[in-house]
Structure formats: structure tokens, C-alpha cells
Amino acid sequence: MNKNEMMDLFREEYGSVDKEIITFLSPGRVNLIGEHIDYNGGFVFPAALTVGIYGALTLREDNIVRMRSKNVKGEVVINLDKELVYDKQDDWGNYPKGVIKELKDRGHKIGGMDILFYSNLPDGAGLSSSAALEVLMAYIVLYLENPEKCEEIDRVEVSRLCQKVENQFIGVNCGIMDQFAVCLGKKDNAILLDCNSLYYEYAPLKLGNYSLVIMNTNKRRELADSKYNERRGECEKALEIINSNKEEKIPNLCAATVEDINSLITDDAVKRRAMHVVTENERVKQSMESLKMGDIKGFGELMTKSHISLENDYEVTGLHLDTLVHEALKIEGCIGARMTGAGFGGCAIALVDEAKVDEFKEKVSTNYEKVTGIRPLFYTSKLGEGTHRL
Ligand code: ADP
Ligand code: MG
Question: How many domains does the chain have?
């Protein structure tokens, strides 16, 4: 999808207009490694994709924001002169509405517009379509307020604002990684990010002859919320046990050592959860080193180790993700694979020899379907820019 195609989609939807159609792209994201350690003081390693949610708009003279999406039914209309509140009937429209409300409350100028969204990103598959939509709306408003100064938009603050909307307006208890990656993504780079301090640095991801293949289980995430809370509880417990037995307290679970865990925690499940956290944090640091040295194979091996740890110790994978990853690893030319996102369905990623990608997709697809009865979907994406005007 390019700018002109998006403008055509807009005309198809709203009819021909003689006004300027302004277009934007907000990417989805994958987390390359560093799973379930953001809330334990660890580093995550996400990257923005080149697939995402597009937005096209024309300005209106009044204070009405009219929104449609090519992917979802229904028109959502917002009157900027009225109080903006969450409305179940507005469904997906609550994401952009919440963002508009938050920006309005902070004193930003917002005028009427007709917007069309279009996405080539699966929603609800763990590639952060919700964050892409939030950041897109925020960027649109801030861009229109002062197009000449769009380079000066404080992207860290925008990701904070969008996380707040998802937490408070939508009611989803997510960390900041998704909005941060969508907003601060950089072409051909991943972002090493400490979700607590928001310290971050870019890491060039030169994959050489390998492609990053995104594999969708096509199984919607289930249990994700309750298990997420359960895992957070288990990690808190592990930290508590370690700190009540140590003279020198540690600030978070990532600061524990394997020895601490082995000698102090007796409960088997809690021990394995803590072991995942500590080893995963180590794998993120090693990944950064591997990539700096151009050791893609080494990075691939770390990805696979990460999956095994999430499967056996953290137990957040399930049949669909495990089947996809293990079938992927059996194919020649695949040098690493793992689940990405919260788990229990959603997507996995694999590093695959460019020349073998078609064969890879075919074989993995057949073998995955044999086991699960579902056909998976594949996306090939490069690492792209954060939300921007086209
Ligand atoms: P994820 O962020 O992993 O894709 P979420 O459940 O957090 O999954 O967000 C998915 C929701 O985001 C959808 O149910 C829908 O409300 C909204 N959404 C995603 N893509 C679009 C789109 N193209 N148009 C309208 N709404 C969308
Ligand atoms: Mg989401």
C-alpha cells in the first residue's frame, strides 16, 4: 500500500473531494527478544514493522470528527464540542476517541476531519494494532496542529500518553513497550528499551541473507489476561522470597542471580518463573552483543532458547505457538524462532534464509495445519519507521 493507493481508498469511501487528502502510516511492532521481563526491570528489544495502520483524512470546517475503517464495520462520529466518554457501542472508535480526549484535555487544538483507517496488520494477533491506532491518532492531531514543527513532536511523551489511554480509557493493563516501539521505531533498527527508566538505544539489525518471517497462529489469545496477572504475582513472590533471605536487597527480579533462585526458592513453579526472567534478561544483553558483531546465527540461537524458556519455565506458549515454532525450526534455512508478545496464541517470528522463505512457508503451513487444524498466516516485513506522514 502506498500513498496514492491510500488516497484512492479514501475517495472510494467518502467520494471524490477537491480538498487535500493527507496520509499517514503507523507501524505494528514485534518484540525480537526479552519477553515478560518488562515488568521485572528488564530490557525488551522491539522493532517497528513496515506493515501497519494507514490513515487518510481531509479537514472539515466544523467540529465533527468522522472516522471509518476499511477493516471494521461502522462509522464513529465525535463532536468535539461535547464531553468525550468511553462508549461500548463505538467499539474500535474508542481508541482514537480516547487519544483525542487526552490531547484536548492537555490543551491541544483539534478541528473537524473525515478520517479513513486501513490496516495490513492483523488485529488481536500480538503485533500491536491497538498501539498503532492510538499513536496514529495522536500523531495526526499533533501534526495538524503544527505541520512545520512535526519533527519536534516529543515521541516519548506521545507513547506515554497513548499508554495512559489504553490503561485508563480502554481499560487494558499494558506496559509501554508497544506504544514506544510504534512511535520511536527506526528503519532497519531494533530498540533496546528499559521500560522503567525509558532509557533506550537503537541497535542496527543487519540480517544479511536472512528474512524476518512473522507467523500468525490464527488462534486468538485466550487466558492471556488472567495468566498475565498470575505470572506477575509469581514474580512478585519470587522477589519477596529472595529479598527476605538476603541482606542486600535487590530492586527487581532481573537483578537476581541463578544462584539466588536455586538456593532460596523451593516452590517449583515460582522457581521456574524466576529462572526465565533472569536468563531472558541475560539473553537480551547477549543479543545486543551478537548483533553488534554481525553474528546473526548467534542471535537466532538466542531466540530459540528464549522460546524454550517461555515454553518450559514461564509456560505462556501453548499448543499453537509451540507447534509453529518447532515446525519452523525443523526446516532447513531457519536459524531461530520464538513466540512474540504476551503468548497463548498470537504470533511467532523466525529468521529464515531468504532463498528458502517460500519453501519454509509452505512446509510449516502444512505441518502446522496437520496438528492444529488451522492454517497459519505469514507476513514478511522489514523493520520500518515509527508513525509518520506519507
Ligand atoms: P493487538 O494490539 O495485539 O493487535 P488488541 O486487542 O490490543 O490487539 O487491539 C485490537 C483492537 O484494535 C481491535 O479489536 C480494534 O478495536 C482495534 N483495531 C485494530 N486495527 C484496527 C483497524 N484497522 N481499524 C479499526 N480498529 C482497529
Ligand atoms: Mg494491543
Answer: 1
